[in-house]
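Course assignment 3, question 2. Fill in each field.
Student: A.L.
Task: Predict the tertiary structure for the chain below.
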Amino acid sequence: MSFIKQIKLLIKNVNFIVYFLFLIGNVKCSCKTSVYIQPTVSTEKPKPRIPGELYPRMIIMYMDRTIWPFWFELDVTRPIKNKNGIVLDDGFQPLKPFQQIPGLLDSLHKQGYKLAFINQSPDNASMENLLEWFNFNKYLTHKMTMSAPKKELVRIISQKYKIDFGDMLYLDSEYDEIPDIAELNVVCIQTGDKGVMMEDVQKGLHIFSTPAPDYG
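Answer field:
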């Protein structure tokens, strides 16, 4: 066999091997898409507390679109039910919190932060069921759902626990009522459309740990 024919045969074999590996890769990819991978919770943790630094005495989070990805009053058909650990509304729509929320709450709770959830829904029973079925009650110092301005819900928490507004951190995905709460001197952070993330909490904690500027 001539040298040129040997080169051509070698190139042909190499092309076949590359094509074969490409097919294998495609088969693997198609298999992966059909496998269910259970979502994991966030393992990111807040930075350890440093003695002498200031921290919020209460972290308040609004529930709708911040803890879970739905508006309870608008998106959920009641009654809601728990079928073997799967939470459904009356239209069999599954109800779940944002994926990172259990890990985030666990991390903050272990760091010793007091956590409160608020919501403006008048359906206290359903909201209580959601918190129980999502296993969130163990993390919460306070929970409240009431058809009232968010500012008033924050004010009630301040009065009940005797916490100054300046010692509170508030997180919400909606901007509309944040200016009203900020007027109370509460540190407010608007979260993104994927719910509250640990970086949102860190932004708030950074404000508490940053000394106020000295204009004297």
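Instructor remarks: The first strand starts at residue 58 and ends at 62. Residues 66 and 195 are 4 Å apart (CA to CA).
Grade: pending
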